[in-house]
Amino acid sequence: MSFQVKASDSLRGVRYEIRGSLAHRAHEMQRRGYEIIPLNIGNPGPFGFHTPENMRLAIIENLQASEGYCHQKGIFPAREAVVMQQQDRGIMGVTAEHVFMGNGVSELIDLSLRALLDHGDEVLVPSPDYPLWTASVTLNRGKAVHYPCPPELGFQPDLQALSRLVTPRTRAIVVINPNNPTGAVYSRETLQAIVRLAEKHGFIVLADEIYDQMTYDGAESIPLATLVNDTVCATFSGLSKIYRACGYRVGWVSFSGNKENAGGYLEGMDLLASLRLCSNVPGQWAVQTALGGFQSIRDLVRPGGRLYESRRALIDAVAASRYLLMTPPAGAMYAFIGVDPQLIPGFDDQEFALELLEKKHVLIAPGTSFNTSYRNYFRVTNLPDAATLTDVFRRIEDVLDGVAVKGPTGVVQKSG
């Protein structure tokens, strides 16, 4: 007797194209011997970035103390290091009891939404967004309501449009700053307006600040929790990006603001943390060393630094392109790049990404992967060195030349 095992209905509408069909195709090509340049994901290790040595030593020295489960919220030195960092940034009233360690920020996003949402509750999520946020809202029975951060505003939130999306079912707003995928860094005035909206309507603020120290040319990343008083603010961060330790899978969330009215929610977080027993213990020993030690990221993002110069090469390549347009990223490790619709009408980001992979062996993330309504953008990471990125954009320009001639439907266009 044969039968089909179907996927859960809860997966309908859940997407993560960063590691979707294009990434699967790239993996197949690599197995056949092709060298693929993976610009689809912010993974520093393959591009020669290394975790600071003192973090590795901290793990090694504490391996013997890592063989059993730890407290469900995490080891005390790691949580206390997060508290000290928050205090240094002007965020008061946070103790180690308000900090949860997780297997990366990804796990904590899921737990924080699972503890919060009932069926049909709404969460305001930026568009473009990091798609895990939309997916996690959906998986936890909620509805992701996307507020626009359009290209014409430099990917800053459209505050008027945002305010119109609030309903009695709104439970939270997600703020990704510095932003993934666009690299936008929000102004103090924008953040204050978002906080006022949340406090007025009584929903909580979920601040994704995993790229908080990764800014360029004087852009200031303002900790959102410093502005929140009359509602709860959950600040998410971790070791993956600033400290180039993606594989350690160490993230944290700290709760600040008006916690007195959120006792039940925090108890729910504690219950969910207990159900998974604890997060990866060895990696947690690197947190205190990372946060309290030399911040090597600063050398990487200043002029002459590896990330800064790669970003410069990316900006120069887009400026030299006939087809491309971009708001220069002020933070993070990505650029969200548009194709001029007047030069290539009907451009399709998915078709272009597949053609670029098949013909030029470059893997990018189509813009619609980030829950946009428009199809003429794509995201790349600036983790490769400047020379590699310059070569990548030559390949991109070659493919765009071909798309411009034949059109997105494959029909050869008449030349002028």
Characterize the structure shown.
The chain has 416 residues and is α/β, with parallel strands linked by helices. It has two domains: 10-50 and 299-406, Aspartate Aminotransferase, domain 1 (Alpha-Beta Complex); 53-292, Aspartate Aminotransferase, domain 2 (3-Layer(aba) Sandwich). It is built from 13 helices and 13 strands. It has helices at 21-31, 53-61, 76-88, 104-114, 131-139, 159-164, 188-201, 263-275, 281-292, 297-301, 306-320, 349-360, 386-406, and strands at residues 37-38, 99-102, 122-127, 143-148, 170-176, 204-208, 232-238, 251-257, 324-326, 334-339, 362-363, 365-366, 377-381. The protein has a seven-stranded mixed sheet, sandwiched between helices. Strand 9 (324-326) and strand 10 (334-339) form a beta hairpin. Helix 11 (306-320) runs parallel beside helix 13. The model is unreliable at 411-416 (pLDDT under 50).
Task: Give a nutshell description of this structure.
The protein has 416 residues and is an alpha/beta fold. It has helices at 21-31, 53-61, 76-88, 104-114, 131-139, 159-164, 188-201, 263-275, 281-292, 297-301, 306-320, 349-360, 386-406, and strands at residues 37-38, 99-102, 122-127, 143-148, 170-176, 204-208, 232-238, 251-257, 324-326, 334-339, 362-363, 365-366, 377-381.
